[in-house]
Specification:
- The longest helix has 22 residues.
- The strands form five sheets. This protein has a five-stranded antiparallel β-sheet with strand order 3-4-5-10-9, sandwiched between helices. A three-stranded mixed β-sheet has the order 8-13-12, covered by helices on one side.
- With 366 residues, the chain is of the alpha+beta class.
- The protein is built from 13 helices and 14 strands.
- It folds into two domains: 121 residues, Phosphorylase Kinase, domain 1; 230 residues, Aminoglycoside phosphotransferase (APH), C-terminal lobe (Aminoglycoside 3'-phosphotransferase, Chain: A, domain 2, Alpha-Beta Complex).
- A hairpin with a 2-residue loop joins strand 6 and strand 7.
- The N and C termini lie far apart (47 Å).
Length: 366
């Protein structure tokens, strides 16, 4: 870990956050915590600096948001994202808006301290438990976990549907602007670098989606539902990294999750593992539809279905051929590798199909 982390305050003035400053803040605000170690840098996320701090009776997870993507400092990112995450975690606290959907089975981590002036968030340490991709490799079946996740996300969307207060509170436009600039607007360019074909219809769809997502949407969405954010311990789920939370479109949870299930299946080492990812998604989607019930058709009208496959395609492209390739499942494949070309071609075709048909592009389905 660097001794100092640079960040900008509201006036774009660079300030410094040292280890000693972090220790002092925790000592002042969490006096019952007895530190027995030093900050330990954690890996797994891309956006922020994250550490574990060990204590006598419990450990803490500490997150600091710089004004850029921590794993890619060349991409600026508004560090108020951590404010949205802190406010989202607060919603799940006792007697708050979303407390009734938080349970021992599925919930986010508990918020312990938030210092907005330092862009610093302290949470409970869930422990060194596997993310869903590591867990799945040895799982016998995935239906129960998929259903738990589908129920939670379905409740999140249903309970916050058409909530004007949350729409105002969670208008996380800076995150959406970054996604538009990095993911949706250049999606067709990422594709053309691999297959040398400019698809104008696909380009129009991804750019239109990016613009649509700048507007407030239908419900509160977690915003970053990919394997690294889904931890599993003793059959229970913990959803971490809520900095992309916003009042947006449900496709950015459901579509995001299925995109990553598809990519994991596409790169799986066996047909058995491929089918585990497919079944994980199908159990999620069935439970999501059942949970949202009478509002499902409003959450997922025809436009939402159409844009969902466009989002899936854009997510595959940014991971297989764009700036988020490093650190994920396509990182070992050079641009000329057939697996990359296959992912790009399939992504464009998926954008023109229905949600159910995306699995037709994977071999060995049973």
């Amino acid at each position: 870990m660097a001794e100092y982390l640079a960040k900008f305050d509201g006036n774009n003035t660079i300030m410094q956050l040292s280890k000693e400053k972090i220790y002092a803040l925790i000592s002042d605000h969490l006096p019952q915590f007895e530190r027995v170690g030093s900050l330990e840098s954690l890996r797994g996320g891309n956006l922020n600096y994250v550490w574990r701090l060990r204590g006598k009776n419990k450990n803490l997870i500490i997150k600091h948001a710089p004004p850029y993507i921590a794993s890619n400092p060349d991409i600026p990112l508004n560090n108020n994202r951590i404010d949205f995450e802190a406010r989202a975690l607060e919603l799940f606290e006792s007697a708050e808006t979303l407390s009734e959907i938080s349970s021992a089975q599925v919930r986010p981590p508990e918020r312990l301290l938030y210092e907005p002036n330092q862009s610093l968030l302290v949470m409970e340490d869930i422990g060194s438990v596997p993310a869903i991709d590591s867990w799945l490799s040895s799982a016998a079946e995935t239906t129960q976990i998929g259903s738990l996740l589908g129920h939670f996300i379905g409740q999140l969307h249903k309970k916050t549907f058409n909530d004007s207060g949350l729409r105002k509170q969670f208008n996380n436009k800076p995150i959406q602007e970054t996604r538009n600039q990095v993911q949706y607007q250049p999606a067709a360019d990422y594709a053309s670098e691999i297959i040398s074909i400019q698809n104008t219809n696909f380009e129009a769809r991804t750019k239109a989606l990016g613009e649509k997502l700048l507007d407030p949407g239908k419900c509160l969405v977690m915003g970053d539902l990919w394997p690294a954010s889904i931890l599993i311990k003793n059959g229970n789920l913990r959803l971490i990294d809520w900095e992309f939370v916003h009042y947006g479109r449900p496709l950015q949870d459901a579509g995001h999750f299925v995109a990553h299930c598809w990519m994991q299946a596409h790169t799986a080492s066996s047909s058995s593992e491929t089918n585990k990812w497919k079944q994980l998604w199908l159990s999620f989607w069935r439970k999501y539809q059942h949970t949202t019930g009478e509002v499902f058709e409003e959450l997922f009208n025809q436009e939402e279905h159409d844009f969902m496959t466009t989002h899936i395609a854009a997510e595959v492209l940014v991971r297989a051929a764009g700036p988020f390739k490093d650190g994920y499942i396509y990182k070992a494949f050079p641009p000329s590798h057939p697996k990359i070309e296959e992912a790009v071609n399939n992504a464009i075709q998926i954008s023109e199909r229905t949600i159910a048909s995306i699995w037709d592009f994977l071999p060995g389905q049973v």
